[in-house]
Amino acid sequence: MKVTWLGQAGLLLETGGLTILVDPYFTDSAASVACHRKMPVDPKVWDIKPDVLLITHEHIDHYDPETISHFVHGESNVTVLSPRSVWEQIRRAGGKNNFLCVSPGVIWTEGDVEIHIVPAVHSDVFAVGFVVFVHGKRYYIAGDTLFSSSVLAELPDCVDVAFLPINGKGNNMNALDASKFASAINAKTAVPVHFGMLDDLDPNVFEYPKTIIPEVYKEMEL
Question: What three-state secondary structure class fits 64?
Fold first, then answer.
């Protein structure tokens, strides 16, 4: 599977003709809360044609209506998986889109991809994470979460790739806890995210034996 980091917690997953977009944030909407973006927007991101959109929670750097309205609107045909806090808003786009209100325990299959919804412990009480199963590998997308035994209990015994927040603010794990979390889930590879977009955090503060520091808009070698 081809995986590209889109900044903050955004990811682009491409496999078998299926395009999955996760938590895209391509504007400066967070400036409304005094958090200006520090990464430029690659104009090519607007050309993405998602088949599936995964949104972990309603915070503006994960669910940005200005960004989302470009991809999900009355003329689009996208399968959208989101928790209730987002679902109640995004479904107003109508059209041919399939809006699924998901919570931990739900499983959705699209083509050769199986998506498991798992818990997150965050200030949005409806926040979720996703485990994407494809070609025998498990990709864990944490979204925003604190280190919690309730999250660990719902994850597979071993994760091939884990995308973990490391900023330590806004009810997120810091780099040290994210490293401990990666160990607790036996992550074969850990990818720190949620840095550099709205802060000056150096991702190298995240230390784990098998770490890939992503470069924005570039495919990762996983």
Answer: coil
Single-letter residue type at 4? T
Residues of the chain with pLDDT under 70: none
Which of helix, strand or coil describes residue 70? helix
Decide: helix, strand or coil at residue 173: coil
Cα dihedral 194, 64, 146, 135 sign: negative
For residue 33, the model assigns a pLDDT of 86
DSSP labels, 75-102? T---EEEE-HHHHHHHGGG-TT-EEEE-
Residue 31 has a pLDDT of: 93
Nearest to 24 by CA among 38, 32, 41: 41
Classified as helix, coil or strand, 43 is helix
Contact of 39 with 216, CB cutoff 8 Å: yes
pTM: 0.97
